[in-house]
């Protein structure tokens, strides 16, 4: 099993959620985060022409655990749904998961996901 963490634009939430639902992946978590990457923020022109740099931007972090065989399909779906083609579209990280346990039943492994 693998955990896929994707940092995406907040306005892409519904598109990403729908793309994963269409693949049959309904269990996922979204967390509001603030951060910066290569984009390094945005510059706003304030009143009087004063520039204000906002270097920590709101993003969403998606977490989903999937079988090894589903990783590439899920990554492709996230990319297709979240991509705008502009800097700041986000990142995807993949990590191994040793074990998953469903609290309600005690099931372990992929059936628990």
Please explain how this structure is put together:
The chain is of the alpha+beta class. The protein has a domain at 7-61 and 68-90: Alpha-Beta Plaits (2-Layer Sandwich), CATH 3.30.70. It has helices spanning 13-23, 71-82, and strands at 2-8, 29-35, 42-45, 51-54, 57-66, 91-96. Strand 3 and strand 4 form a beta hairpin. Helix 1 (13-23) packs antiparallel against helix 2. The longest helix has 12 residues, at 71-82. The model has no long low-confidence stretch (mean pLDDT 91).
How many helical elements?
A: 2
Please provide the ordered H/E string of secondary-structure elements. EHEEEEHE
User: What is the overall shape?
Assistant: elongated
The radius of gyration is 17 Å
Number of strands: 6
CATH class of the domain at 7-61 and 68-90: Alpha Beta
**Which CATH architecture of the domain at 7-61 and 68-90?**
2-Layer Sandwich
First-to-last CA distance: 9 Å
Averaging pLDDT over every residue, what do you get? 91
What is the beta-strand fraction? 25-35%
Describe, in short, the structure shown.
The chain has helices spanning 13-23, 71-82, and strands at 2-8, 29-35, 42-45, 51-54, 57-66, 91-96. The protein is of the alpha+beta class and 113 residues long.
């Amino acid at each position: 099993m693998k955990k896929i963490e994707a940092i995406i634009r907040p306005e892409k939430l519904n598109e990403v959620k729908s793309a994963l639902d269409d693949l049959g992946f309904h269990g996922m978590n979204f967390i509001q985060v603030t951060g910066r990457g290569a984009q390094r923020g945005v510059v706003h022109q304030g009143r009087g022409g004063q520039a204000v740099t906002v270097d920590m931007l709101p993003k969403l972090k998606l977490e989903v655990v999937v079988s090894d065989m589903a990783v590439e399909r899920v990554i492709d779906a996230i990319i297709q749904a979240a991509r705008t083609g502009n800097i700041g579209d986000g990142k995807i990280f993949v990590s191994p998961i040793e074990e998953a346990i469903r609290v309600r039943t005690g099931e372990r492994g992929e059936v628990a996901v």
